[in-house]
Amino acid sequence: xxxxxxxxxxxxxxxxxxxxxxxxxxxxxxxxxxxxxxxxxxxxxxxxxxxxxxxxxxxxxxxxxxxxxxxxxxxxxxxxxxxxxxxxxxxxxxxxxxxxxxxxxxxxxxxxxxxxxxxxxxxxxxxxxxxxxxxxxxxxxxxxxxxxxxxxxxxxxxxxxxxxxxxxxxxxxxxxxxxxxxxxxxxxxxxxxxxxxxxxxxxxxxxxxxxxxxxxxxxxxxxxxxxxxxxxxxxxxxxxxxxxxxxxxxxxxxxxxxxxxxxxxxxxxxxxxxxxxxxxxxxxxxxxxxxxxxxxxxxxxxxxxxxxxxxxxxxxxxxxxxxxxxxxxxxxxxxxxxxxxx
Length: 342
Prior knowledge:
Elements (H helix, E strand, L loop, with lengths): L1 E5 L11 E5 L2 H11 L9 E3 L2 H12 L8 E3 L6 E4 L11 E4 L23 E5 H4 L3 H10 L8 E5 L12 H10 L3 E5 H8 L4 H7 L5 E5 L5 E6 L15 E3 L2 E6 L3 E2 L7 H14 L4 H16 L11 H8 L3 H5 L1 E3 L10 E2 L2
Parallel strand pairs: 1-5, 3-4, 7-8, 8-9, 9-10, 14-15
Antiparallel strand pairs: 1-2, 5-6, 10-11, 11-13, 12-13, 15-16
Helix pairs in contact: 1-8, 8-9, 9-10
C-alpha cells in the first residue's frame, strides 16, 4: 500500500497534512532485508496507477527484486492513513482504503507458487489473510506442506481493523501452526487467544520449530525445538534453558529513545530473519531483531537505514552486562552514538 504518515501527533481529525510513503508489512521486511545485504524478492499486486508506480519504484530502490509484481489494470493500489501513536494504545488510529484493491485480488491463481518456490525463506503475515477470501486461500496454499517448501516465516501481525468480517483468532492460529518460524507480540496473543505469557503462547503454538514472542520494551523470548532442521542454538551469554523439547532463549531489548513507535515489528522480523539466513545463534538473531527495531524506532517513518553489518555484529556480540546498559538514540546507526549507562 501507499502509506500517508501524519505531519504531527494527534487525532486523524486534527492532523492537517500527511507525507506519502510506502506501507505494508511484507514490503517493509523485504526492504529492510535488502538494505541489510540479502537477496530479496517481493511478490504482490498493485494497480496500474501512479501510486503503484511509486510503490514499485521505491521498493526496487532498496535493492528488492520486483520482477514478480503484477500490475492490475482494473483495481487501484491500496492506501491507508495512520496517526503517530503506538499501535498498542487506544490513541492509535488507522484507516484503510484497500477494499477492492489490486492486493485484495491475490489468489493461488494470480500468485503462482513457482514465484516463491526457490527462496530460502518465504515470509508471510496475517495481514494478507484478512484482505479477501482469495487472499486467505493464497495463504493456505503457501503454508501447505509440500516437498522442498521454503522455510515459512509467519508474522501474526493482527490488525483488528481488517478483521471485522472474519474470525481472526481461528484463522491466524491455523496459519501460524502451519509455519516453521512464527513471530507474535505478547499483546497480540493475549487479544487473539487469551494467552500473553510466552510459555502459555508456546502451549497454544506448539507446532512451529521456532516461536518468537515479542514483549515490547521488555524484549523477546524464543522457543526453538531441539533436533529441528534449523541450526541449533549454541551456548550464549543469555543462558538459554532446555524446557521440555524446547530451548528457550530470552533476550532483553536495549533502551531506545523513541522518535516514532510505528514500524518496529516489521524491522524486528527483518533483523531476526537476517540472523537466521546467516546461521547465527538464537541470541544473536534476537539481538539483531532488537537492533533493527531500534533503527526504526529512532526515525519518523516505517523504514530506516540499518546499522552497518559489522557495527550491528559488534553490538550483538556484547557481553550481557554491556548489552544491558546499551542506550540507542536518533542517529545511532550512523556514527558511534550508542550510550552505555551505569
